[in-house]
Specification:
The protein has about 375 residues and is an alpha+beta fold. Helices cover about 50% and strands about 15% of the residues. The chain is built from 14 helices and eleven strands. The strands form three sheets. It has a five-stranded mixed sheet. Strands 5-8-10-9 form a four-stranded antiparallel sheet, with helices on both faces. The model is unreliable at about 1-5 and about 15-25 (pLDDT under 50). The structure holds flavin mononucleotide. This is Tat pathway signal protein.
């Protein structure tokens, strides 16, 4: 049975429990859903697109680079970034109001997300006839990206930016040809960050045991579950009004009025069901990439983000899907055991992604550029 069907079956069981209440909400919810869907699709089409032109004056190009940056992967889709524009540079800053204290107490994922955004900016800059040069000064907040004139060049990774998505579904089990694995390897390594690639069946089973251990610990943690639920957007209306967070449809779950979603969340989102879902997702994947940085410091976390975003763009260019499975690195006790399995000594495994072939899922939204650019 497909995961979407399993999810529906669990949902129906939960709806049966919540019976009367759901019946009252049902009819009007259907009408609102149809209206919401077309508004959502319009917003998605306006978000996930290339610029009309790459031949722009610097001030317009800079704004477009920020727009491309916001299309990057980021933890829980909180979009934890702000951008301060100067003549020839962009400062990419963390947004303290969009931290995730339960899953990310040390802001590791905030800096990894900033790194993802910076990588999109670096790839896009070339198309606009600019070279983007990021630098990190531990004494200053955020990442500074200097912009210099350069010959325009449109690359496969740039073309892939509006097509990339985190695809949290079952893949089709096909393996990736060696020449494409080599391209993924070239994309995923960086300055002080190494990517480890696992494609053997037994390796996927080994990694699955850390994924299940991490996921089980997280679902036993009330603060983690509450934080996650607060970022889920159950309906089109919720997703459209915030334009952030985890839209249920983007995870293959049904769209529901928010109050019904929250009512049944704890019945549907159980440890057993989630672990079974991850088992089938990982077993259907072609492989797993683990990003490991040399030092456990914000500059390296950001570099790991850059590497995983580049990897994701390269995968997208090769018609491969990807999804993060970070549970093994998010729970400190499991992270230590996972580091031992990886044989990386005292270094920190930063991020974990699975990849493979499969259909797309509905996309998630982003806040408009005007909301993330800080006025001087
Ligand atoms: C640092 C970081 C950690 C993430 N962790 C997870 C994760 O553990 N599980 C997951 O499904 N997605 C994870 N994601 C993916 C985000 O949820 C996803 O990028 C976001 O919802 C936006 O969706 P998009 O990538 O399709 O644009 C992570 C992304 C980043 C950058």
């Amino acid at each position: 049975m497909s995961e979407v069907h399993q999810g529906r079956r669990r949902l129906l069981a939960a709806l049966a429990v919540g019976g009367g209440l759901v019946a009252i909400g049902g009819g009007s919810a259907l009408v609102m859903n149809a209206r919401g869907r077309s508004g959502y699709e319009d917003a998605i089409n306006a978000t996930w697109r290339h610029s009309d032109s790459t031949d722009l004056p610097l001030s317009s190009a800079r704004r477009e680079l920020v727009r491309y940056a916001t299309l990057a992967a980021n933890s829980h889709n909180t979009q934890p970034w702000q951008f301060r524009l100067s003549d020839h540079s962009v400062l990419v800053l963390p947004d303290p109001g969009r931290r995730l204290p339960a899953v990310d107490p040390d802001d590791h994922h905030v800096f990894a997300s900033l790194g993802c955004a910076v990588e999109n900016m670096v790839q896009a800059a070339r198309a606009f006839g600019l070279r983007a040069v990021p630098s990190y000064d531990p004494g200053a907040p955020g990442i500074r990206v200097d912009l210099e004139a350069a010959p325009p060049e449109r690359t496969d990774l740039f073309d892939a930016i509006p097509h990339r998505q985190s695809t949290r579904s079952r893949y089709d089990g096909r393996s990736v040809p060696p020449e494409h694995l080599r391209l993924l390897e070239a994309a995923g390594n960086g300055d002080g960050v190494r990517m480890l690639l696992f494609t053997e069946r037994q390796q996927r089973e080994d990694i699955l045991s850390y994924l299940v251990a991490g996921n089980s610990a997280q679902l036993d943690d009330v603060a983690f579950v509450e934080e996650l639920e607060s970022w889920i957007r159950f309906s089109y209306g919720e997703a459209l009004s915030t334009r952030d967070g985890l839209f249920s449809k983007s995870s293959g779950s049904p769209v529901l009025p928010g109050w019904i979603g929250r009512l049944i969340f704890s019945r549907v989102f159980t440890k057993g069901a989630e672990n079974r879902k991850y088992e089938s997702q990982l077993r259907s994947s072609a492989g797993v990439a683990v990003f490991v940085s040399d030092k456990n410091e914000p500059a390296y976390w950001a570099e790991a983000g850059r590497c995983c975003q580049r990897f994701a763009l390269q995968a997208t260019a090769l018609q491969l899907r990807h999804a993060f499975i970070n549970q093994p690195v998010e729970v400190p006790a499991v992270r230590g055991q996972f580091a031992t399995y990886l044989g990386i000594g005292g270094r920190r495994p930063d991020l974990v992604m699975r990849f493979g072939y499969g259909p797309e899922l509905p996309r998630s939204l982003r806040r408009p550029v005007e909301h993330v650019i800080l006025q001087a």
